[in-house]
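I have been asked to look over a protein record a colleague put together. Thanks in advance; the entry in question is below.
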Amino acid sequence: MMRAFRRPGTVRGVILALAGSAFLGGAVPVRDADAQGADAQGSAAAAEAGASSKRTIQTFEAWTVTCNEGGQGRKACSMSQRLADPKTGRPIGAWNIGVDAEGRLVAGLRTPTLTALQAGVTLQVDERAPLELAYRTCAPAFCEVVLPLEDGLLRGLRAGATARVGFTDLARGRLAVPFSLKGFTRALETLEAEAAG
């Protein structure tokens, strides 16, 4: 059974792109005012939208909750954690949780593009039996699994200490990438409160 919030209209869409290119250590380029200024009316509208937007970031141990609130009181929130290569410590993926248009919790798990897609992904909480997941899509910077967070999985994540994401790197073979569940419950409660409010 999946969770649903009473006011699903307050959050539109699933915010799974928090990490975007940044989860691989990149940065999203921002054009300067001159580059955007060819159309004065468009620049004014962009400036007004920027002035009315608000971003809040809260950290709960290993998890970060980010909310973006635009004009007309629309708010989109997600919680995330970067996945790091166990040998080098470099970011190689991200685990993002957001809320869809029906108010359900949905997770997006991102891995590098040089991955054996047919091998899929496993998600294991502590020593429980791993879940086997299939990739949904690949973009130039990442491949992604999207799954609803059902009550059984949520209970495991809330009670767990660590989890592992398994996938097959084309160059290095099967990898098991650990991530921490410290702060998961508090981050999730904050996400739920923001989505419901």
